[in-house]
Amino acid sequence: MNFFNKTIAIGLFLVFFLDFHIHAQKNHFVKFDNHPELSQKDLMKALEIDPSNTIVLIDTDQDEYGIHHDKYQQQIAGIDVEGAVFIKHLYTDGTQLVNGLWLKDFQIKSPKINLTEEQAIARLKFAFNSNRKFAWDIKVNNPSFLPEVQLVWYDKSYGTDPSKYNLCYKLDIFVSNPFESYTVFVDAQNGAIINKYVSMHTVNHPGHGEGFYTNGEVMFTVDSLQANAFEMVKHYEDGSISFSTFNELTNSVISSNNNSWTDQAAVDCHWGTEKTLDYFLEHHDHKGLDNEGGEVLVNVHAQDPLFGGPMANAYYIGGTINIGDGNADTPITVPLSSLDIVAHELVHGVKFCKLDLRR
Q: Residue 48's domain spans which residues?
């Protein structure tokens, strides 16, 4: 099959392949029509969360459309469930939607902890090569470099099966050679290293949010600049940028101070771009659009390039996909940020780079 036909085949297959993965990774999603606003107790009952658990309101916000968003953290025996965060959305017409991750029927009476915090810290040496030193051993009198320790319930796959969750110490640390920050999970019962990931600037960090068309909350990759600064940017392993998602209205990369992402069109585009580029790489060994890992720019809320104002279209040009919000004066009044449109424009980019098509 020549490259042109292969590229067309990729384009036709993408929608079917990626649609499968939408359903494969779907998180909880519940809708309440014509229902009085749910109290926390009623919300737990509706979501089938065991009454021995607690949910803690960690953020509240009202967006430009008047939709009220309450963000909750689930706790078991007073201990956070890592990743078990969900949002209740209250619309102006009274409709309530809840999406995110929560665990049903998780019953723990008395958590068993065999390791102390100090013993968990001592286990960190098994997570790194011997040439890497811990910051607190180098900067002995500097409290800024001491490990931050928290007990959490943790499942590496962030699944919905309570039996898969272990009580762990979550440790945020700094190490040398090279200087990096890590989040490490140590089993609080047997001391096993369950997982670790880099958590500092220019490296990939897990994010989550709900788009217009994602049918619930989805996971995607963002850049963690520091503890309270995140951007919709994904990097390759060598540190170079794979793609970034840009807001034309603010002339800046989409950002957040708490890794909470409420721009639904941006979530659609960022997640859809990641899934599509991952597909190119994993199934066709094709890196980026040009197969050389060149940076891709995803421009959301794109404006009409000729007359200004909202654009009821989407197009690719010069390494950038441009996704409009729709225009009330046209038949298309909603954002063109669905997965099939994002993938379609990225396929245009592949064809442009390989075949030099000027369209």
A: 33-110
